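A student in our group prepared the protein record below, which I am reviewing. What it holds is a sequence and that sequence's fold in token form. My question to you is simply how this chain folds and whether the tokens agree. Do not assume that whoever made the record got everything right. I have pasted the whole thing underneath without changing anything:
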Amino acid sequence: MSIVLKRSEGWDIKLRKRIKNSLSIKVFLWVFSALTVCSILLYGIVLTVLPKKYQVTSDEQLNANTKILFSKLQDMRYEEAVDEIYNFCIQNNSAAILSDDNGAMSFGKIKADELTVATSNIATTVTFLDSRSEYALVVSSLSKTADTILDLMLRFLPVVFAIILLLSALSAFICSRVIVSPIAKISQISKRMTSLDMTWKCDIKTGDEIGVLASNLNTMASRLHETMEELTNANRQLTDDVEKFKSLEQQRRNFFAAVSHELKTPLTILKGQIENMILGYGDYQNHEMYLPEALKAAENIEYLVKEIISISKMESMDLQDTLQEISLKQTIKDTIQSILPLAQDNDIHIHQNIRTDMVLCVSPNLWSKALSNIIGNAVRHSSCGEKVFISVQSCKNGNILVIENTGASIPEADLPHMFTPFYRADKSRNKATGGSGLGLYIVKTILDLHGMTYHIKNTEQGVAFFLYIK
């Protein structure tokens, strides 16, 4: 018994919890209860009022008809009056007694087994044309319609109650579906909104408050989606900027570390030479021999410092103020002319193959320096008798300026580091072959300022520099 009670209590708790958490069930119960109570009250009112009201109306109608009858009888003979009273009783479901001193005559007599009750009596005296006697006429209502109505309504009460429950349940179900269905959709949408999912659209298109709410939700979701996309893009851009900043900061640290290393060696050599000459140690007494070497070391330091200052200026300059339209073909021609003596000294032939001229919007000084460093590197890193080819090739996104020197090769492991400051593929770091190590870094800085794409790779003939020009 206790197990049954516990199961019953558990089921009752689950049912209450389900009702509490379900708007559809709540609306169904509210509407069902309201319709059932209202219908029962309405039926009770009808059950109470209708029979009484019908009886009052029936009595009023009988009184009115009786007055008409009384007025007609005053102008009739006795025999005619008897027929008139008889017809009246049949038509109005009533009984009448016509009496005088000699006796009485009854009209509309009801059988004893019929439960008929006279609800009202109307009496008057009448005289007829063919008689001077005065007759007493009493009219009684025999209608039992009101009692019949009450009896029928009480008899059909269980059926009516069942119909009320059925219609109330059906109406409550329809109302709960109509009212709760859009709210349930909005509830599902709100759950998706909590997970920041805005890829939905509420398709409730009504003119009521729920339709307005759905429209407002669609508008809000659209704006939130746009805002989230903007924030995502801004966050992505910020992340990229932070990564670029970290990369630039790391490059700057590496650059200054390399600068300190590059300046330390020639400064140490220069300082040692000058100290030895001042103290007159050994061969250093011959100033004429070591002063040119000291001067050359100082010139190397000066060149390196100028390059560093040039890079610093380029990184901080406003490029937009210096942009001009120039001819690609002419700038290449001018650069070749400036490098031609170096190429002739090393028996290197420069071949230019630019058939169609192009106009570039660049900073002329920076562009000339970048072009000079690229072509100069190609000449300096080519063996005697080799060739340098300069050409423009077409591609899907524009054109490519290709500068290729033959007879040279760069180890594949060194290619990704060629634009690093002070990096030389020649591990001996020989100044005669490796330069200052800032040439390609300067090229990178200039081309990055112009937003140009570039790379170096080995070819079948040698090494080629590719610069993409839109």
Residues 111-118, 428-434 have pLDDT under 50 and may be disordered.
